[in-house]
Amino acid sequence: MLDLTLAEFGSRAVYDSERSLKGRTVRLTGFVTRDDDGTWYVTRLLVSCCAADATTGKVEVRGAEAPATDTWVTVTGTWYPEGTLGTDTAWPPVLDAGSVRTVEEPANPYEKR
Questions:
Q1: Average pLDDT of 61-89?
Q2: How does pLDDT run across 2-13, given as a tens digit for each residue?
Q3: Is the pLDDT of residue 86 over 80?
Q4: Dihedrals φ, ψ of 77, to 5°?
Q5: What CA–CA distance (Å, rounded) separates 99 from 25?
Q6: Where in the sequence is the domain holding 45, given as residue range(s)?
Q7: pLDDT higher than threshold 90 for residue 77
Q8: How many CB atoms lie within 10 A of CB 24?
Q9: Cβ contacts of residue 101 below 8 Å, gap of 6+?
Q10: Number of structural domains, the chain?
Q11: What is the spatial distance between Cα 56 and Cα 2, in angstroms, rounded to a whole number?
């Protein structure tokens, strides 16, 4: 099992031509966000320097019921390749959930870019 940040997962899912995530089980932690259509994501704020420059990184979660928005979760599952590598059609990356577990917000909720 691979414990990855959302930034690491996103980069490998969208740009890795070796497809190193294929068939691997990964574990991601973040908070729940949703689109208007009900699609849900595990999300983190990514910073380079400080909270003022934060952007969001997100991974679509499929195959599991969405917890309440803003709930912190750890999602374990496998990458679902979609779209063409390195293009907008591959974003956001998708994870087929095996399990979703509610967790406490980490002491540092930000990820470094």
A1: 91
A2: 999 999 999 999
A3: no
A4: -175, -165
A5: 11
A6: 2-112
A7: yes
A8: 13
A9: 73, 74, 75, 76
A10: 1
A11: 21
